[in-house]
Each structure stands twice: as structure tokens, then as C-alpha cells.
Design goal:
disordered N terminus; disordered C terminus; six-stranded mixed β-sheet; 509 residues; alpha+beta; five-stranded antiparallel β-sheet
Length: 509
């Protein structure tokens, strides 16, 4: 799913036999870091990254990253806050917090272009000297009746660690919800794994048979993750639908501890199946030993997406209301690149996406893997920028040769947003370019309505991460900025912001 997960990330696969994953700074995955990802106080594993740094436009005018449509971090953070737990900073991926919600982006105008690109600018609520540039993508929608038939393999962890009420019982409910949403031409298989691997259902079109098999699941034994994945891929290949959706849906707490240790064969297995069209979605469950690091990285490696299921409502949201976007990919290897105009912008930072960064040269390299977008998916990215002439975060340099050259303004653009993507059946990428008019900078005001909510969610994620550049902007400010909402999920966010700041902000008491 990500470019930096092409070769080095395949070293992650021994995670399926061991128990953790991670990513080295700078875009490549470190097997040592993955395997040594330190569990938190209660045994949960997260692969945290430092907050994105500030860049000087004169020295680094171009920012490049792979898109991310995962939402697991938000649901997991919600679970911790509602349970009265302190949220570890490394568990928060701000881009997943922002992309959990939908925004008012227009549908694509041209059917040949799979998504629209929206840009807007607002003043920054926590820093009057900076502005916020929002980039929004929206994929075209596909009705459930119009999507291709699906060949799905439910790969279900039934080991002893899954016996808690928020694990296997919720898995059974979640996958039953998915079974109810399937069509007669869909093919469903169920592979379970604990001390051994078992195929319970193979190539079924009968929801009743699928739900009966799920209902009979019980948790016990160790976790044979590697052999189970191999069996799941074999099953998916046996029922492969040309031109259809071929995907493994892995449901687990991520606590793999028994399995294959042949690293090369595991890498080849995932590479072969990914390139041949069998993708992988991971659904995380439970707490205490939850391995978020593994769940996110394996989904990325398998060109799929990662969600965390903390309730029956979340299961319905992910596996029923968002079923088409979960399953049907409309664009592959989606990359975003922003080139800033030094005449109008002096400094910038990308909020979130720390483990999605790409080298500038990777943008036009079609061999570099990146993110996938499903039908109806949205992607939002926020840059905090310093207009030329403002003080900014970085002090002026002492020596003249190290200072930014004086560039005359007047080309009417503060930046150019570039987007590369491949249609699912193509191997060569297509390019979209969208200039950001300087008038947007001049007209910027405090964020309102939809933009205000997106900024509030971004601030919430960064506050939980301990981002010092938010200054004194607190949870009470975040709740105020989010404003009154009609949508259930947005209303819940406002309550979470109040809950997170209850002890720190008297206004929230």
C-alpha cells in the first residue's frame, strides 16, 4: 500500500510468526524495530513516530506522501478514552483521525477521473502567524448492486487470547454483519487458526451457512498466524474471480506467536498474492495485548486497509455502511506531492502522515508502491504554512548564502498540488495537477463549518500526540472549534474532546 513498503517492508512478514512491527524513520521499514516494538504498560504494541518537522521552502520546496484511508487509530483512541485510559502518544495517527470522518468534497465530474481534488485555506486557530492548507480527495461512489462480485476469505483468530467479550464475540457479530450485506454472486470462505488451521466454509454463497459457522466459533490455544495466512491465500486463489474483488479479511487482536519463520517464503507469498490481485484487510479487536503496529503494517503490505472494531456500531459502519469503499478499489498507488512557491510561503509542516512520507523522486516512479483508494473513500491532508514575511517557527539564518533568495511575487499561486494514481487495471500512472491560487491566502479567515471540524480533529490528534506547536490551544478550544453537529459520529467526537480534556480544562466540566 505504501511506497516504502515495497521491498524493505516485506521484512515485516516474520511478524506473522513473531509479534510486532514498526517502521524506521525516513520511509523504510526496519525489521528490528518491527520485532522490538515495545509493548505499552498493558502489553499493547504501537509503532509511534515523531511529530512531522518544519521545513524551509527555500531548502525543501516539495513535500511528497502516500495517501492513507485507514481509520483504526481513531476507533482505538475512542476505546481508550471511553474506558478511562490515558492515550499513549504513539497510538495516535492524526491522518487516521481526520480521515475517519466525511467532508463536503464534490463528487468527480469526469467518470474517467476517479476522484475530485479540493483545496482551501484558513487561518490557524492556534497560531495567528500561520495558515492551514487543506487538500481533499473524494472517490466516485459505487452502489452495492453495481460493484463487482467479491471473493472473500474470513481469516479468524480463535486462539485463547481472543476469548474476551470485546474480541471473538464481537468478531462473530462483525462478520455476521458483513455476511448479511453480501450478494448471491459473492463467494465466502472461513479459515480459523489457533493451535492449528482449519477451513470451516469454502466458496459459500449462503449467508445462513456462513453465520452458522461463525456462531460456532470458540477461543482456545496458541496462534498459528503464518500457516493461517498461507491457507487463506490458497483458498482465495482457489475461488479467484477475474475482474472481481479478491480479498482476505483478517480478524484478530494481532497477537501472533506461532507460525512460519521462513522469511523469504513469507515475503514471496504476500508479494505474489498482492501483485496477482488478492488484497488484505485487517480488523483489530480487543485490548490488553492488542498489536496495532502489526495490524496496520500488514494491511498496508497487503494493499488493503486497517480498521479497529470497538463496538457493534463500528462494525456496522465499517462492514455495512462503508462496504463498497472497504472492498472495491478505484485507484492504486495514489501519491500526493505539493510544491510550495517560496515567494509566498516560507515554511511548512504536514500534519500527520509521518509513516507515509516518500522521497521526491518516488512520486513519478511507477515501481514505487503507495496507497489505495476505494469507492467513495475520502482523503484529507492539512499543511500548516507560514506566509512569506511572517516570523514562522525557524529563525532567520545568520549567513547570507544560507538565507532564502528574494523571489518576486506575482505568479498568482502559493503552491501546486500534484496527484499520481493508477487505475486498477493499469500499470502506468496518471497525473492530476491543481494550482492553489494566492487569492485563497489573501482571503483566509478563521475556519468555519466543514473546514472547522477537520481542523478540530487534526488539533485533537496532535494534542494527544503532545505537539508543542499547538501552544496553549486546549481540548476546550477543540470542542468549541468543532461546534454543534447533527451527525452522530461528529457529535461523538465533540464528546470525546470534552472527555479528553475534562481534567485539564474547567470549561469541559
Amino acid at each position: 500500500m505504501r511506497a516504502h513498503l515495497a521491498i524493505t517492508t516485506l521484512a515485516l512478514l516474520p511478524v506473522l510468526a513473531l509479534a510486532g512491527c514498526g517502521q524506521a524513520p525516513g520511509g523504510s521499514v526496519s525489521y528490528e524495530a518491527v520485532n522490538d516494538a515495545a509493548p505499552g504498560e498493558n502489553g499493547e504494541r504501537y509503532d509511534g513516530h515523531p511529530v512531522s518537522p518544519v521545513h524551509q521552502v527555500a531548502a525543501e520546496p516539495v513535500s511528497t506522501f502516500a495517501v492513507d484511508v485507514d481509520t483504526g487509530a481513531y476507533a482505538n483512541v475512542r476505546r481508550m478514552l471511553l474506558g478511562g485510559r490515558t492515550v499513549p502518544a504513539e497510538a495516535v495517527r492524526t491522518e487516521e483521525m481526520i480521515n475517519y470522518f466525511r467532508y463536503d468534497y464534490p463528487l468527480p465530474d469526469d467518470p474517467s477521473v476517479p476522484f475530485s481534488v479540493t483545496t482551501d485555506i484558513a487561518t490557524t486557530p492556534w497560531n495567528p502567524g500561520t495558515r492551514l492548507l487543506r487538500i481533499g480527495l473524494r472517490g466516485y461512489d459505487v452502489a452495492r448492486s453495481q460493484r463487482p462480485p467479491a471473493n472473500l476469505v474470513f481469516m479468524v483468530d480463535v486462539s485463547g487470547s481472543m476469548q474476551d467479550a470485546d474480541k471473538l464475540p464481537l468478531v462473530k457479530q462483525a462478520l455476521s454483519t458483513l455476511a448479511d450485506a453480501l450478494r448471491p454472486d459473492d463467494s465466502i470462505s472461513i479459515v480459523t487458526y489457533a493451535g492449528f488451521v482449519e477451513t470451516l466454509v469454502e466458496g459459500s454463497h449462503d449467508p445462513a451457512e456462513i453465520k452458522a459457522a461463525l456462531d460456532g466459533l470458540a477461543a482456545s490455544g496458541s496462534t498459528a498466524g503464518g500457516p493461517a495466512l498461507e491457507r487463506a491465500y490458497d483458498t482465495a486463489r482457489a475461488h479467484f474471480i477475474p475482474g472481481g474483488i479478491n480479498r482476505i479479511v483478517m480478524a484478530t487482536d494481532g497477537d501472533f506467536n506461532v507460525g512460519l519463520s521462513d522469511r523469504e517464503s513469507l515475503e514471496e507469498m504476500v508479494r505474489r498474492n498482492r501483485e496477482d490481485g488478492v488484497t488484505l484487510t485487517t480488523l483489530g479487536f480487543g485490548q490488553g495485548n492488542y498489536n496495532d503496529a502489526m495490524m496496520e503494517a500488514v494491511a498496508d503490505l497487503g494493499n488493503g486497509n486497517h480498521a479497529y472494531i470497538d463496538s457493534a456500531m463500528e462494525a456496522r459502519k465499517v462492514l455495512d455502511e462503508e462496504l463498497s469503499s472497504t472492498l472495491f478499489t478505484i485507484a492504486r498507488d495514489v501519491k500526493v506531492q505539493v510544491e510550495f512557491n517560496p515567494a509566498l510561503v516560507s515554511q511548512y509542516r504536514l500534519i500527520g502522515y509521518e509513516n507515509r512520507g516518500l522521497a521526491e523522486q518516488d512520486f513519478a516512479d511507477d515501481r514505487v508502491d503507495a496507497g489505495e483508494i476505494g469507492a467513495g473513500h475520502q482523503v484529507t491532508a492539512l499543511y500548516e504554512i507560514v506566509p512569506a514575511g511572517e516570523a514562522g517557527w525557524l529563525a532567520p539564518r545568520r549567513y547570507a548564502a544560507n538565507r532564502a533568495p528574494v523571489v518576486p511575487a506575482g505568479d498568482g499561486e502559493i503552491a501546486t498540488v500534484r496527484l499520481r494514481y493508477k487505475l486498477p487495471e493499469e500499470t502506468r500512472s496518471r497525473l492530476i495537477e491543481k494550482p492553489v491560487a494566492s487569492a485563497l491566502l489573501a482571503e483566509a479567515s478563521m475556519p468555519r463549518r466543514d473546514m472547522a471540524f477537520a481542523v478540530a480533529v487534526a488539533a485533537f490528534g496532535q494534542k494527544l500526540r503532545g505537539d508543542r506547536r499547538l501552544g496553549d490551544f486546549g481540548y476546550a478550544d477543540i470542542a468549541r472549534l468543532a461546534g454543534s453537529q447533527n451527525d452522530y459520529w461528529r457529535q461523538e467526537f465533540v464528546q470525546l474532546a470534552r472527555l479528553a480534556g475534562h481534567d485539564a480544562d474547567p470549561w469541559l466540566r
